[in-house]
Each structure stands twice: as C-alpha cells, then as structure tokens.
Amino acid sequence: MRLSDFKGIFKTSKVEFISAVNIDEDYYVISLKKPECLMWRPGEHAIFTLPGNKVAGKKYRAFSIASTPEEDVILLGTRTGKDVSSFKQNLINMKQGELVKLRGPFGWFTLQDSNSPVVFIGLGVGVTPFRALLKSFDQQENRNLEFIYSSSNVFLFKDEINKIVEQNDKFNMFYTRTIEETNDAISESARKYVNKAFYYIGGSQKAIKSITKLLKMNGIKSKKIINDPFLGY
Ligand SMILES: Cc1cc2nc3c(=O)[nH]c(=O)nc-3n(C[C@H](O)[C@H](O)[C@H](O)COP(=O)(O)OP(=O)(O)OC[C@H]3O[C@@H](n4cnc5c(N)ncnc54)[C@H](O)[C@@H]3O)c2cc1C
C-alpha cells in the first residue's frame, strides 16, 4: 500500500443509477452512469451512499468497481444475502436516473507492474475487481496469469472472463467449488511461480487470512500478496 493509493479518497461524485440486474440467486450487477471526467485504475473501489433514500443503519458501503473507465459505465457486483440490508434493499430498487454518491475511486488492489506473472484468487463475489483487472489486459498481454475462481454456487461474470482467458495462451483458468480444490490450485500456482508472481486475493476477511497463511507456508513473501478484503461477508 502506498500513500498514492489513497489519492482519490478526497474526490466525490454524484452518478446516475442505470439498473440492478439479478443475475442468479442473490447476486446482482449494478450499472451506474460514468461521468466523463471520472477515472480509476482497474481494481480500485469506492465508498457509496444513496442520498435520496432513507437507509436504516450504516449509510455507506464500499464496492469494488468491476468495469474499466474505457467501458463508460460503473459496474458493481454484489450479493444481498438472505436478510437484505436496508442499504442494499434501497440500492437494488432504485429507479433509472436517481443519484448515487461515491467517494473515490481509490485503492491498492491494482497491477504492481507491467510484466510480472499474476495469480488471481477470486472468492465468491470477491471476483468483482478481477473483472476490471482482466479487462485492462489487451490481447498482446505478455505475462502469465493463473486465475483461480472459487464459488460454491454462482460464478459471476463467468462468460466474460472465459472469453478473455481463451484469447491468450498465457492465461490459465481454474474454477473450483471446495476449499480443498481451491487450496490445491493455489499451492500449485505458488510452487510454479514462487516469488516471481504477485498474488491477488479478493474475498471475505476470513478467507483472505487463511489463503495468506497458505501462501506463506508455500514460501510466498508478504510483499507479493495483495488483498481486497470484502469486510462485511
Ligand atoms: C475494499 C472493499 C471492497 C468491497 N467490495 C465489495 C464488492 O465489490 N461487492 C460487495 O458486495 N461487497 C463489497 N465489499 C463489502 C461491502 O462494503 C459490504 O460490507 C458487504 O457487501 C455487506 O453489506 P450488506 O449491506 O449486505 O451487509 P451489512 O449490513 O453491512 O452487514 C455486514 C454483516 O453483518 C451482519 N449483520 C448486519 N446486521 C447485523 C445484526 N444486527 N446482527 C448481527 N449481524 C448483523 C450481516 O449479516 C452481514 O454478514 C467491499 C468491502 C471493502 C472494504
């Protein structure tokens, strides 16, 4: 983490809500209109509030941005869970044109350089920032990528991810469902790349903690591990 990762924290914007699409089960993709001047680095997140809505309890949530600025839309991916919070209840029921306020984007879950191999470990809805990171690679991307995507049920953005991965011989995709399968795939990648790669983990704090431990057991140094902790899951 560098001080410059927080540069965007002082910027606030009001953006128009476009839609909330229920993809499957309790998974939603939210689209917001991107103001022309708003830029971010793939992998960053922002803090969102809903100024025109009466939200009970905590009034803000952090969400990673699933799109790149070039896509001209702010895409978010989320799960509501069974007991839908007042914030998410309001968010998924917003009408087109209503305003959402965001602080940022900012963050540290970004590419560290332009050539090191990367191992992406996306856990459930924690896959969201990886869509943006993957979209930022062009077809000539010359680095190796291992993408381990684990979910017990829904694989958000699966078709888009497959399309990008299939276009590059250096990209390998692993879909896993159980902790054992996920850990095996992670250990294999760690043995393959050791400290030549950067390891990105997106998921709940608990899962990040256990995977960080696994990576360290495999000899990976802390400075090679980058986390996006989805606090609240
Ligand atoms: C850097 C960052 C990026 C993130 N990116 C994303 C993202 O892309 N997508 C995403 O969905 N989330 C993301 N999050 C997490 C997000 O900010 C929310 O915390 C999360 O989505 C849960 O929000 P919620 O409204 O569903 O639950 P909340 O209301 O915030 O509740 C959080 C947890 O507490 C429990 N809880 C709530 N009220 C009670 C109560 N009264 N008693 C007991 N338990 C209670 C809930 O069941 C839930 O498990 C990110 C967080 C960070 C820090």
* Beta-strand fraction estimate: 25-35%
CATH top-level class of the largest domain: Alpha Beta
CATH topology of the largest domain: Rossmann fold
Which structural class do you get from the secondary structure elements?
alpha/beta
Encode the helix/strand succession as letters.
EEEEEHEEHEHEHEHE
Total strand segments:
11
What would you give as the CATH superfamily of the largest domain? Nucleotide-binding domain of ferredoxin-NADP reductase (FNR) module
Q: Whole-Å distance between the termini?
A: 22 Å
How many separate domains?
2
Mean of residue pLDDT values: 95
What spatial order of strands do you see in the largest sheet? 4-3-6-1-2-5
Largest sheet: 6 strands, antiparallel
Q: Nearest-angstrom radius of gyration?
A: 17 Å
What does this molecule look like?
With 233 residues, the protein is of the alpha/beta class. It has two domains: 104 residues, Translation factors (Elongation Factor Tu (Ef-tu), domain 3); 111 residues, Rossmann fold. The chain is built from five helices and eleven strands, in the order E-E-E-E-E-H-E-E-H-E-H-E-H-E-H-E. Strands 4-3-6-1-2-5 form a six-stranded antiparallel β-sheet. A five-stranded parallel β-sheet has the order 9-8-7-10-11, sandwiched between helices. The longest helix has 15 residues. The site of flavin-adenine dinucleotide has 23 residues, from strand 4, strand 5, helix 1 and strand 11.
